Each structure stands twice: as structure tokens, then as C-alpha cells.
Request: fold
Amino acid sequence: MSATAKDFAAQPLPSWRRAVLKVGSSLLAGFDGGGLDPRYAAGLARFIESAREQQREVVLVSSGAVAAGRSRIQAGGDGLVLRQALASLGQASLIAFWQQLSSVPVAQVLLTHDDLRNRRRYLNARASLRELLRLGALPVINENDTVAVDELKLGDNDNLAAAVASLVDADLLLIATDIGGLYSGHPQRDPNARPIERVAAVTPELLLAASGGAGALGTGGMRTKLEAAAKAATAGVATALFCGRDSEVVDALAQGRLHGTLVAAQSDRLRARKQWLRHAPASGSLLIDAGAANALRVRGASLLPGGVVAVQGEFRRGDVVELRVAEGDDAVGRGLVQYSAGELVRIKGRHSRDIEAVLGFGYGESVVHRDDLVMIGDKAAASAPAAIVESASFESNSQEAAQ
Reply:
């Protein structure tokens, strides 16, 4: 048994179908400055592959672009502009690095915090990531360091990973570190430091105790990882901190066991989201046919344009709308709409494949995605979406035909 596995007794991971895995540059950069080293990344890639075999989805947030860029060009110094240039040089190498370790297509996604604060860009990023997962690709997310002025500050990718976990409706945030997890003190300086296997809440005192400073290759220490875990917890996402250098620890993750620190979620993500959808003010209504209503209730399908009969009210993409059965005007659900009222007037009753031909663009085949939908009216319908979202899979084109 490895030293880390001895320090941190195995505990069960929370149930999950979609996870965000954050990998820092300290696990990727070669010790000789020769770019990216697969010695630890290979084990993490095997975990991602194992998750796929279990019908689970992983979104990867990966550092390492600056380290990869530094290996391609001789440049001294460490200023912000230089690091931005090195990140630009290294992005292609970083994606190629993960592609060599992956059996599925790897997709590069560059984000800044502004992308997640701006409503329209947030929805666009969300839709793109959903589509990549539906296609079976591995999204590899990094910050767009080349254009972001203040995005290379301490621990930014840890916090980005927490934001991405909320963006993609992840059930779990996994942060691979270069130590076993959280300790009561600095394990290399304090001989009395003891492992902390579970954290109920991230407190200011805990953050202070975790301030161990940044590593030579990374941009953040344990404090920033706990800050990210606190943000994820608020969104209803648990966080697992584990040693990405320990193959035994990484292999155990695929078996649902964590040798590390688990930071508990502060609320039930699905329940909180469904409650919000139930009670948030609706900006309009969609009248749908009986077949679409049945597909939503029984199959847990997304609402597609073919099932929309009429559009009522004025609303924008991302607003909450009510779904009503045209024949009886009964409310059957509420959800976040992917197209504006004006756009839906043009595509209602059409097949999803016609969306781009009619509008000249498309935000995906669904009008209301089932991850953004809550059924109302009866107990069976109300309980269906939780099971649907937990499955974290996407409907096939054959389901549209049935609608």
C-alpha cells in the first residue's frame, strides 16, 4: 500500500455521472524543463477512460500551457506578458499531449472568467460543452491566458474548475494535487500534521491553516484548492482532493474509492436547481402538443422545436418559460429556454435539423434541455427530472422522431 493510501483511509466517492477533473502544472511539467511529462498524466487519462466505460462523463481542466510553451522557445524572465506569450505557444502542445493519452477526440475550450459572467457567452459555453459531451469528445479547458490580463493570478485554474463544475452541472469536482490531500499542518514542515479526510465546511480558520504557498511549477497551493472547493460546495457540488502522483490512489477513484480529502457539498444541487426552476418568475409560455408532453413525462426527453405549437410572451435565450399542453392549456413543466421568443416563432413545429437553415445559426437541437427542465403537476412527473439529470446522458435523434 502506498504512503498516501496509508495516510488517507479509503472512503466512498459521492455518486456521480459527470465530473470536472482539474490537473495542475506540477503534475504535467517535466522536471528538466523539457515540456510536458506523461508519467502522472497517463494514470489520470486511464481514470477518464475507465469513467467512460462506466457511462460517466469527465470534463478536464488542465494547466500546463505555459510549461509547454517554455520548452519551445528560449526566453528568460517571468513577467505577465511573457507568460501570456508562452501560454499561446504551449496551447497546441498541451492539447496534443492529452490527445496522445486519449482514445477519443480531444476538444480545446479556452475560457476566461468574463465568459462565465456574461449571460450570452455563459449560455454559449454551456451549450458547446454539452454538445461536445454528447458527441463523446473529451473537453480540455484552460484559461484564455493570451488575452486575459488578470487571469494568471494565484490559483486561477482551481477557481476556474469550480466555475466549470457549475457550468456543466457536474456532480463532482476532482482536484489532482501533488500531495495526499488536506493536512492539519504543512506535512513537510510540521511533524505533527495529520490528514483530514473529510471537511464539512470550508471555514476561514481552515483556509488560514491551508496557506502553504505555491509550488515551484504551479500557480496555487492548497488554499486556492479549498477556495475552489468552497465555491463548488455552495453550488451543491462535492470536491475530492487527491494525489495525482500516486497510481494506487488514482486507480482507486475508478472503483469509487477516495484516498484523500472530501469537501462536502452544502446543498443538494439537483433539488436546489429544481426548486429554483419551480419558483423563478416565468417570462413567457410555450404551448406544446400532447406527444411532446408525453415524451417529457415518460421518456425524460428534452423539448424539441417539433413539439412546440405556439409561443406566448416576449423572452430571451436563457429565460424561464412555462410549458403548457396546447389542447388543455395545462402547465406540465418549466425550464430555461435555449432560443428567444422571436427565434422560436420561426422554428416551432420544425425538425431540429432545420434550425440552422431557418435561423442561420443554432444553439443545439433542443428548445429546453432536460437538464434545465422541471416537471410539475403530479408527483411522478416532479420526481422524473432528478433521475433524468442524474443519468447525465443525452437523447438520441431517434427520440425526436418519437416526439
Summary: The longest helix spans residues 80-101.
